[in-house]
Design goal:
This protein has about 300 residues and is mainly α. It is built from 7 helices and no strands. It is flat.
Length: about 300
């Protein structure tokens, strides 16, 4: 295969994602059209039954004839039946056309998939030639592959950090929910001097939040480690939650008033909110870093492909 043929093949293959998206859209259109066809079929069958009913119901026929409106009523019902039939026939025809369009589109996609395999095989064979080419092109290709490997590794590290960051956010949300419930019960105690039930409910939420906080501390350590592994990561993040010495440190010690408990819960909520903001800031930085790495990797692959095609 010469270079001109390979470029023409490349252009055809590049239209494959467009056609695949078009097929997805077409399938949704077909699904909607089929639903509409079912609705119109039911409407047509109803109108048909109405016509049959007025012809069959002798008492109604006799009454309508007596009033001199029989022909008018029959014509009206038949007209509605014909109108419903026309709408149904129209949607049936549209569904048929859509299915034909889908078949033709699938045929084009299958041809392009075959050509894509041919294109990729040709690229693979040429890439092997470049790897063993010790000239300038071979060196350039080697350097591009080496750079692509580094960027791919960075991308994996970014994704791993993102995954941990999302877990941290979910854990923070769970803690916030328990603190909010505990605050509500503490407020209830302040204004009503609640009894054993409200105290038990409040401390159950506090105990759960404390347990979740210990899990959060471990997650944060892993998250910070992953952030350090991401090359060039410069987000101004100061992650930390002092579960060992401050957060919830006096829940089971000397609690003097319900009001002080509520104030302590609110301070813990502020700390959790601050942590949430910092983690989300880090995740936004990771998102930008992932986008940049993806764009860099794409440009490298395009350059490699151009080298191969021009071989």
């Amino acid at each position: 295969m010469n270079n001109i043929e390979l470029r023409e093949l490349k252009l055809r293959v590049e239209s494959l994602p467009v056609l695949e998206n078009r097929l997805m859209t077409l399938e949704k259109t077909i699904s909607a059209a089929n639903e509409e066809m079912d609705i119109l079929l039911k409407a047509f069958e109803k109108e048909k039954r109405d016509v049959e009913k007025i012809k069959r119901d002798s008492f109604s026929v006799m009454l309508i004839k007596f009033m001199g409106r029989y022909e008018e009523r029959v014509e009206k019902e038949i007209g509605e039946e014909l109108g419903a039939k026309l709408k149904y026939d129209k949607i049936v025809e549209r569904c048929k056309q859509l299915q034909e369009d889908k078949g033709a589109l699938i045929g084009r996609i299958e041809i392009l998939k075959k050509e894509k395999r041919e294109y990729q095989n040709e690229l693979s064979q040429r890439a092997m030639q470049l790897k063993y080419d010790h000239g300038a092109l071979g060196q350039q290709y080697f350097e591009l592959e080496e750079k692509a490997g580094k960027v791919s590794k960075e991308l994996i590290e970014i994704k791993e950090a993102e995954t941990l960051g999302v877990r941290v956010i979910n854990k923070i949300a769970a803690i916030r929910e328990h603190l909010k419930s505990a605050e509500n019960w503490a407020t209830f105690d302040v204004f009503t001097r609640g009894g054993i039930i409200s105290h038990m409910a409040k401390y159950e939420h506090l105990d759960t939040a404390a347990s979740e906080c210990h899990h959060l501390t471990a997650l944060l350590e892993d998250f910070k480690k992953e952030l350090r592994d991401v090359k060039g990561f410069s987000a101004p993040v100061h992650l930390g939650i002092d579960t060992g010495t401050r957060v919830f440190d006096f829940w089971f010690d000397n609690i003097f008033t319900d009001l002080s408990i509520r104030d302590k819960i609110r301070r813990d909520q502020e700390q959790i909110d601050l942590l949430d903001t910092e983690v989300k800031k880090a995740l936004e930085e990771l998102k930008n870093a992932k986008k940049l790495a993806g764009e860099t990797l794409y440009k490298i692959e395009v350059t490699k492909e151009e080298l191969i095609i021009n071989l």
